[in-house]
Design goal:
It is built from 5 helices and 3 strands. The N and C termini lie far apart (42 Å).
Length: 157
């Protein structure tokens, strides 16, 4: 095995692990009572799901190009999460759709990564989730329960 292929395999294993962590969190957050068996089943399912995500990305030919500045999106996440948790028990009129435009002119692999990560992050809060991801212009169509959040504004900058 050549050095380049070994590095690629190591990066794919790391990518699968990165995908597995939130999958395991979703699994464990959905079980009513935790046991070692549930933990093991969740870990195995998360690892399989993480590896499937890597295989799907590879089959699609996608390349991740993450901009470090996107880490700023995490700052407003706790406040958005708390605000949405307070809003969910009494949603105003069932919600509506809103289009969130994303920056144009980025290389395609950067734009696709931004769109995917932004959709993932915005779906973490219960007050919004993406229903469509149009390519032209780059945007996210969201189902939302309230006004635009600071998190939405951060993601669209």
């Amino acid at each position: 095995m050549s050095g380049g292929r070994r590095t690629s395999a190591a990066l794919e294993a790391l990518e699968a692990l990165v995908w597995s962590v939130p999958l395991a969190g979703c699994w464990l957050g959905s079980v009513p009572s935790w046991s070692p068996e549930e933990g093991l089943a969740g870990a195995v399912a998360a690892l399989v799901g993480g590896w499937c995500a890597v295989l799907a990305r590879r089959a699609y030919g996608a390349v991740w190009r993450v901009d470090r500045q996107w880490l700023r999106w995490l700052r407003p996440l706790p406040a958005a999460l708390l605000a949405d948790l307070a809003r969910v028990p009494r949603p105003p009129s069932g919600g509506r759709r809103r289009t969130l435009r994303l920056p144009e002119g980025e290389p395609s692999e950067v734009g696709v990564t931004r769109q995917g990560l932004a959709g993932l992050l915005l779906s973490v809060t219960p007050g919004s989730y993406p229903v469509d991801m149009p390519d032209e212009p780059p945007a996210l169509v969201l189902h939302v329960l309230g006004p635009p959040s600071r998190l939405e504004r951060e993601v669209s900058r």
